[in-house]
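tool_log.txt
---
The assistant was asked to compare two proteins side by side. It first ran the structure predictor on the initial sequence, then on the second. Raw inputs and outputs are pasted verbatim so the downstream comparison step can read them without reformatting.
(1)
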Amino acid sequence: MTEPVPTPAQVVDAMHAAFRRSDLDGIARHWAEDVSYQAPGVELVGKAARVLAENVWLDAFSENEVETTHRFVDGDEIVDFAIMSGLHTGPLALPGGQTLAPTGVRISGPYVARYRIVDGKVACQQVVYDRLALVEQLNGGAS
């Protein structure tokens, strides 16, 4: 007997729960092998690339939290308006090869994510957030 395919909302909620636990295997369990991912400055295709990118965040931040404030579902697509927060406790690898040393700063910021779920897996994820606001929080405010 096969297990029922989870709803798109169940997939995203389970992924968020794994993120809160910093459980990379648990997060990746919900990605399709050919998952595509877009975020400011990042475009990736494939589960292996996605795992490497998610690990950058999990290595740099602890006490991760996601709070979905609004959700819109249309068939296999979900759009979440959410707030993500975390404590910067490890080195953060930046695009271009630079690394930001741990600051001990707790960051928090809104983001919007669009997910397309196929056969119970995230096939596409697009995230929009304010990178400058994140950097300013890590640097203690605007310079």
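(2)
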Amino acid sequence: MLDLRLIRDQPDAVAERLASRGAGATALVKELLAADAARRRLLKEAEDLKALRNRASEAIGQAKRRGEDASTEQARMREVGDRIKALDGEVKAADEAIEHLLLLLPNLPHPSVPIGAGGDDNPEIRRWGEPRKFSFTPKPHEEIGEALGLLDFERAAKIAKSRFTVLWGSAARLERALTAFMLDLHTRRHGYTEVWVPHLVSGATMLGVGQLPKFEEQLFKTVEPDDNRTLYLIPTAEVPVTALHAQEFLPEATLPRRYVAFTPCYRREAGTYGQDSKGMIRQHQFDKVELVKVTTPAQSYDELESMTRNAEEVLKRLELPYRVVELCTGDIGQAAAKTYDLEVWLPGQGKYREISSCSNCETYQARRSEIRYRPTGGGKADYCHTLNGSGLAVGRTLIAVLENYQNADGTVSIPEALRPYMDGMERLTPLK
């Protein structure tokens, strides 16, 4: 959420920065400014009438003490009181409308974010590794997995619906190995604290991290019949981990906080995505190792760079070619001020595909969730910056392993970094 005072004080600057996100954001700013101006007019009228009523009350009291008839003035003040009551209701409704508009506004892009309309305008920052040259035509992961009997889309659809997957045997083990490898790397080498969090969260939590109201249609939710309370299945561990410090004041000396969590993620992913409707690229349920940081404003951009490098280290150790791109203003997420995407090479598709997004949300989530820090030297508490990134999406990493390590005989070699997690197993072979 943006600071309303900033929008009031610098409306042209805010509108200009948000315009690069698209016309919708600019229209929201105009609507918000109009609503705020109307609210202030209502508030001034109410305050003026309350002052008038106070003066009249004093005058009526003095008239009564002198034995004079004050009934006419009393009747007028009853009308003023009715108008004040109506105005208070209108001010409350205006406050709610402004709050709703603030919740819809996206974050301000950092000045360094490149201007662009969409994904095609994202500049490449760097690459690592050379795509493997195959002596045969590489297959996509769904063909590899089905031929080995390790990926089962048909039974998953029977159990649930399309865009779910059953992993059999060594594929399930590989998913578990990838998760353990990522958690060990981030906790032992990169210094993150591992946390285990709920997979169901309240609407207030979703609102605080920016998932609501914008992404309501993409979320799975449950309703408790006894008290009609709604709980949402998390679309990413970013949601509960960021919310750990909601409504808290953190000592500056304890920042930055660095957390890592493994969870399943649940997304409705409405619509069709062509090739992405096949296989495991875009699923309703998928596993992810998530990195979250809570920092001071002075720390956050250094921490974004280190978070991105931490995610890259996973791909380097698995020897998977990848590239880093910076998202332009037209492609950056609702809550983010700056984002780097890591895209892994998938030979079965012949292109790089996103496997991690690392974002600095600055105060956008902290303001909504009331996450503050107290400066070490004293002074007024201020909002923290929050950051998040995939470290990595486990299912997409499994896809990358299947496609990059496939062999001509249909088997898949296991990256050396994962073999200790699979009791030395060197290849995925057909399920017996």
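---
observation on (2): The chain has a mean pLDDT of 95. The first strand starts at residue 124 and ends at 128.
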